[in-house]
DNA sequence: CGCTTAGTTGAGTTCGTTCAACGACTGTGG
DNA sequence: CCACAGTCGTTGAACGAACTCAACTAAGCG
C-alpha cells in the first residue's frame, strides 16, 4: 500500500490558496490570512489508497485538505470496517488527535490528496490571538457533528435504497459546492466503500446500486459513480440537502 | 406532553456548582469561574418526557445539563426516529443552533432535567476574552464527534446483541463517571428508546435484551435498565470503553 | 501469461421485521 | 369503587430484507 510523503519542494502561499476564491468559503481579513500563513508548516501529498492518519497514533499535526477525496473510518478487531464520513477540500482533519491526544479513527485517500500541514504547537496561539479563527474551528467541529447526525439517521432508519440515495446525493452536493466536477459528476469511490459506509454487504450494495442505475439516477464507471440526477436521489432519501451558507476553513 | 419551564426562583452560583467537585471535571481558575458565572443567565427545569429543544428552532441559548438524563434525536418525515446520543450532567447542548443558526435535531428529557442557561450574545465575548474556555468548547465538540463515531461504527457494523451490549455499557460508563448511580445502576430508559438508538424494531430489541438478561448482564426494571456486569457487556461489543481523563465543562 | 481487483449474478440461509395478541401496571373519569 | 384507555414489556408466527457462499466476467498489471 502506498503511503503519504512530505512535499518539501513547494508550499502554496495561503494568499494564493486555490480554495479561497470559491464563493463557498468566507472572506478572510489580511490579519487572519497572515496568521494562517505562518501557522502553515508545509504540504503533504498522499497517493490514492494511502493511509493519511491511523487510529491510535498521537498525531503531531493538524491538516486542511487542499485537493482530493478521502474518508475517515473505524474498524472492529475482526476487520469489520465502518466509514464515518468523507473528507474533501477545505476540511480540517486531525483535530481529535490534536485536542485529545490520540486519534480514534483512521483516514485514507480515495484519490491523490494534498494537504496543508499546521503546527500543533501554535494552536494555543491561534486561540489566544485569533478568536475569530478559534470560532471557525468550533464551527467546523459543529458542522462535522451535524453531518454525522445525518449519517446516523440514515444508517439507523433508512432502507437500503434510501441510504444509498442519500449517500450519493450527499457526496454529489458536497462535490458540487467545491466545484470538484467538470461536466461529468463522478465520485471516485468503489462499491466496497459505499457498502462500508451504508453498513451493508457488498453484494446487497451492488444490487441496490443497480436499482438506482436502472432508474437512470446514477451510472457506474470504472471506479467511480457518476450522478445523473441528484435531485431525485435526495427526494428518494427524504433528505433536505446541505445548506448553502458560506463557511470558514483554515 | 409536559414542556420545559423556566425557574426564576433559584440560580445555583457557579462557585457552588454541584458538578465541579467531581474528579471527572477539570479545575477552573477564579477568573474563568467568574466569567462563567456572569455568562450564566438562569436555570431551566424540564419534566421527564419534555422536549427541551426542537429541530428547526432558532435557538437563542446555550445550555449545560446540571442534572438528569436526556437524548438528542432526528426524525424522518414519516416518523421514523433515530436517537443520536444521550445527554448527561456537564454536557453542553444547543451549540449547533447557536453557532449555525438553526437546530438540526431535537432534545428530549428522559428524567427530570435541570439546565444552566447561557446567553448566546456573550459567546463572542467568551471567545475574545477567555481562549481557554473557547478551547474547552471545541474540546467538547470534538468529544461529541468521537462518541458519534463510535455509535456509527456500532449501528453500521455490530450485530444486534453487540449493539445492545455496547449501548448499555456506554451509558453505564458515562453514568458512573458522573456518579449518577447510588448502589443500583439503573439507566432511566425504555426499550423503545433503545430500539430507536440501535436502529432495530422494538420486538427484536426486546428479544435481544432478554438474551442479555438471561446471561445476568442486565436486569430490566419498571422503566429502567439495571446494569449487573458492565465489563462483560463491553467485552461482548468489543468496545474499549471511555477514556477516564478529566474533562472540561461550562 | 497468470494474478489481482472490481463488479455482477444466482441460490439458499439467517437475522430482523411486521402482525397480532396478551399481561401488568398507571392514571383518569364516572 | 370500578371501567376504561394508555403505556410498557413480552411472546409466537409468518414474512421479507439482507447475508453468506459461490461462481463468473472484465479490466489492469507485472
TrEMBL record, chains A, B:
Residues 158-231 form the HTH crp-type domain. SUPFAM superfamilies: cAMP-binding domain-like (SSF51206), Winged helix' DNA-binding domain (SSF46785). It comes from the Bacteria. Pfam families: cNMP_binding, HTH_Crp_2. CDD domains: CAP_ED. GO terms for molecular function: DNA binding. One of its GO terms (biological process) is regulation of DNA-templated transcription. Keywords: DNA-binding, Transcription, Transcription regulation. This is CRP-like cAMP-binding protein.
